[in-house]
């Protein structure tokens, strides 16, 4: 999906947790996705937050050898707003649970878009996996 996110009115997003197909929040995204899912990964690590994951990105200006696998897709503004509500993202400089930030795919520079992250691990345990469904096997 080269040029993902350049289509008029659409937003590229990267999902890695409960929004993945077959998981508990998938129905909030996939019936409304405007493109087929495309596999990807971003630099960072997952922590376990009460049964769901949070992505922690490397500090600005650095990279990490660790990656988190997920899926890229395109959504319209309404779907992005629905996901903002799920992730308790209220906007920049607000008291958010997750922040929505712009990232590039770890392997393919042409893929970039929004992802929901925590700015730090909040003392939560490292998931020790790069793919959230693998972490769920331990629950």
From TrEMBL:
UniProt protein name: Gamma-glutamylcyclotransferase
Domain Gamma-glutamylcyclotransferase AIG2-like as annotated: residue spans: 13-125
InterPro entries: AIG2-like_dom, GGCT-like, GGCT-like_sf
SUPFAM superfamilies to which the protein is assigned, alphabetical: Gamma-glutamyl cyclotransferase-like (SSF110857)
CDD domains according to UniProt: GGCT_like
Gene3D superfamilies to which the protein is assigned, alphabetical: Gamma-glutamyl cyclotransferase-like (3.10.490.10)
Organism whose genome encodes this protein: Cohnella hashimotonis
């Amino acid at each position: 999906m080269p040029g993902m996110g350049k289509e008029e009115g659409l937003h590229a997003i990267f999902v890695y947790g409960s929004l993945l197909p077959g998981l508990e929040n998938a129905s909030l995204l996939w019936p409304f996705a405007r493109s087929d899912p495309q596999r990807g990964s971003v630099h960072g690590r997952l922590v376990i937050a009460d049964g769901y994951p949070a992505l922690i990105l490397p500090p600005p200006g650095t990279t990490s050898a660790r990656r988190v696998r997920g899926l890229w897709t395109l959504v319209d503004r309404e779907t992005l707003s629905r996901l903002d509500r799920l992730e308790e993202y209220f906007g920049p400089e607000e008291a958010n649970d997750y922040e929505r930030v712009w990232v590039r795919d770890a392997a393919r520079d042409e893929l970039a878009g929004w992802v929901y992250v925590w700015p730090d691990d909040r003392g939560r345990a490292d998931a020790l996996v790069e793919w959230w469904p693998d972490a769920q096997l331990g629950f």
